[in-house]
Specification:
Strand 5 and strand 6 form a beta hairpin. This protein folds into 2 domains: about 190 residues, no CATH class; about 110 residues, no CATH class. By secondary structure, the chain is an alpha+beta fold. It has 10 helices and 9 strands. The strands form 2 sheets. It has a 7-stranded mixed beta sheet with strand order 1-6-5-4-7-8-9, with helices on both faces. The chain has a two-stranded antiparallel ribbon with strand order 2-3.
C-alpha cells in the first residue's frame, strides 16, 4: 500500500474512533439495567481474580479481560479495620462505565501504573485492554495491559519509584482527557506514531531485509554468514526469495525456542499463525509476534524484575 493510502486509511480509523468515543460519552436512552457505573474489585480474597458486589455478596467476573477507553486514574482514601488506606480507581468507558478498584500497594496497581506511565500520549486515545493475572501465591494478583493487540510490557522492581510512576500515569490520563476532540481531519501528529516502519515503504533488497530482521532477533551475523556458505553464496541478493523466506523463518523459530517455546513444532505453529498467515508489513508482524512470545512466557519473575 502507498504511504498516502495508508495515511488516508489511518485518518478514517481515527475518525471512527472519535465517533465511538463520542457515543460512549452519551447516556443510554430507553429502558436498561446499566444505571451508574459498574465497580469491579481487583483482588483474590473471594476466590476469583476480580468480582462485583451485590448487597455485600461477591459475584465473580468470569470474563478474563476488559476493553474500553481509559478515562481516569485516581487514588481515593478509604478506611479498613479502623485505619486509613488508599485504593486506585481506574475508570474505563465501554458499553457502560466500569471502575476498577485495587489496593494502592498491590501488584495489580503497580503493573497497571507502570504500563500506563510507559505509553505515549497519543496511545491513550486508543482502546485499552486490562486483564488480571494470578501470581503463584493465591493472594497475589498481577495485571496485563494491551493497546490494541500490542502487549505493554513495563517491568518493575523493589527499587521502582512508584510515587513518580503514579504521578506520571495520572497526569498522562488527565491531560489526554482534557485534549480537545478533533472532529475535522486529524493532524499528521495524530497518525504518524502508528504509521508502519519506514523501511517498508520501499522495496528492500534481500540483504537489507535480512539485516533488519536479524537485528530485531539479535541474531549474530556469524549465523547468517554460515548459512550463506551452506548455500554457496556470498550475499543474500544472490538467492531467490523462497530461500530468504526459509532463512528468516528458521532464525525466528530459533529465537522463539530460546525465549520460552518448548519445541520447534509449537514455535512453527505460532509463527505461521501470527506472521505467515497474516497480511501486513513483515517487520511489524514479526515485532508483534515477538511481543506475543514474550507475553505467553511471562511469569511472576518477569513482572517483578526488570
Amino acid at each position: 500500500m502507498e504511504l498516502s493510502g495508508l495515511v488516508a486509511l489511518l485518518n478514517r480509523q481515527e475518525k471512527l474512533l472519535t465517533e465511538i468515543r463520542d457515543s460512549l460519552n452519551k447516556p443510554k436512552l430507553g429502558l436498561h439495567n446499566d444505571a451508574g457505573a459498574c465497580k469491579i474489585y481487583c483482588n483474590r480474597q473471594h476466590g476469583s481474580l476480580w468480582y462485583t458486589l451485590t448487597d455485600k455478596i461477591a459475584n465473580p467476573v468470569n470474563e478474563s479481560a476488559l476493553t474500553g477507553y481509559l478515562k481516569e486514574l485516581k487514588f481515593e482514601e478509604t478506611e479498613r479495620r479502623g485505619k486509613p488506606t488508599y485504593k486506585l480507581l481506574t475508570t474505563i468507558a465501554a458499553q457502560r462505565v466500569y471502575i476498577l478498584e485495587s489496593g494502592d500497594d498491590s501488584h495489580f496497581t503497580k503493573c497497571l501504573l507502570s504500563a500506563i506511565a510507559s505509553l505515549a500520549p497519543s496511545q491513550l486515545s486508543l482502546p485499552i485492554t486490562i486483564s488480571p493475572q494470578p501470581g503463584d501465591d493465591d493472594k497475589v494478583l498481577f495485571c496485563r495491559v494491551w493497546i490494541g493487540s500490542e502487549y505493554v510490557k513495563a517491568p518493575y522492581s523493589e527499587d521502582t519509584d512508584f510515587q513518580a510512576i503514579g504521578d506520571k500515569a495520572i497526569a498522562l490520563v488527565r491531560n489526554a482527557s482534557r485534549a480537545p476532540v478533533q472532529h475535522q481531519q486529524p493532524t499528521r501528529q495524530a497518525v504518524l506514531p502508528v504509521i508502519q516502519a519506514p523501511q517498508q515503504a520501499k522495496v528492500l533488497s534481500h540483504n537489507e531485509r535480512v539485516k533488519i530482521i536479524r537485528k530485531m532477533l539479535d541474531c549474530p551475523v556469524e549465523i547468517a554468514l554460515e548459512w550463506l556458505k551452506s548455500q554457496k553464496a556470498n550475499d543474500f541478493n544472490q538467492l531467490p526469495k523462497e530461500a530468504i523466506d526459509g532463512f528468516i523463518r528458521d532464525i525466528c523459530i530459533s529465537w522463539a525456542c530460546q525465549n520460552g517455546i518448548k519445541n520447534q513444532s509449537d514455535a512453527m505453529k505460532i509463527f505461521e499463525k501470527h506472521v505467515i498467515n497474516v497480511d501486513g508489513p513483515e517487520f511489524n508482524l514479526i515485532k508483534s509476534w515477538m511481543n506475543y512470545i514474550q507475553t505467553i512466557k511471562l511469569d511472576v519473575s518477569d513482572l517483578i524484575e526488570a
